[in-house]
Fold this protein.
Amino acid sequence: MTARAADRARYDRATAQLDAPVAIVDLGAFDANADDLVRRARGKPIRVASKSVRCRALLERVLAREGFAGIMSFTLAESLWLARSGFEDVLLAYPSADRAGYAELASDPKLAAAVTVMVDDPAQLDLIEAARAGGGEVVRVCLELDTSLRLLGGRVRIGARRSPLHSPAQVAEVARAVARRPGFKVVGIMAYEGHVAGVGDAVAGRPLRSRAVRLMQAAARRELAERRAAVVRAVREVVPDLEFVNGGGTGSVQHTAAEDAVTEIAAGSGLYVPRLFDNYTSFRGRPAALFALPVVRRPGVGVVTVLGGGYPASGAPGVDRLPVPYLPEGLRYDPQEGAGEVQTPLLGSVADDLLIGDKVWFRHAKAGELCERFDTLHLVEGDAVTATVPTYRGEGHTFL
């Protein structure tokens, strides 16, 4: 029996009394992935990206482990909810226009002490100030650096379009703008190198593309390490007591941790290891989050139909954004139908071994987005479900 076949047998036994669709997290794999992230972080604390987990119980589990500290959240409403729930260090990774949330933040000492908001433009400070509604608490601010690699005098840009702040002078100027305003304090810098951390460099069947990605990423790492250090020096001239410099992502943990200027690493997807993280030379994780769909039809030889399945991931549309049939091995989509809204046909000789009611296990393309489809996660240890915990959705929250 292969390792994957053994996993399928375990998951089927663990969920034998549960009707599909059903989602699980294999705690053995989850914990092993957490250990690997810590190893690659080389002693620097890992701030957990909540969008890649979207389950309070699992956030609490990983933060209880050595090497993890703090949360990187994705909306202001989520940040406030987590802070009210007892999480004491929440960095909002994206600017917000949530006026009601800012009013609440500025009027509550506990929330203001726990939550740091993201800024890359003085206009965002104007919005926060106008939303205060009399709240006088100091708002903790993090400045985001654009990490994109710019070539040929800026005519070629590689990297996500996020912050407009690219140079040390630009970041330092916004730091001065914050410092001039009562009621705000710069406490950190964040720089997410998505073109390094979020792009696989070993794509199966595409050796030339993979080599090009590795060359690009090596150049990007060198350029960013030098520029990030210069940014930190420039901002410390304005804010000598800067608390943290956050960088990285699951795919670049060890590289970012090697930079002296960086004090903490961000990671989250590496806990669940969705399918988009199969194509890296820098690490090999264990798939921890899966979902199962039930076989409901057998239309003919070499084909079964499962209920549901159309759970695409965000990003540029493509087949890499679809969940992948994982267990049993050997199933594939019908190219004429793909993953359906209500039903999904699956092809392959192994389909003939499946019966009505059997489970087919899938891996989502991305990590936390799976939790937007399920109210609960069943936590599997060995071949048993040892706990069932709510996702954000299960607690009544769909923040985006």
In short: The chain has a mean pLDDT of 93. DSSP finds twelve helices and 19 strands in the chain.
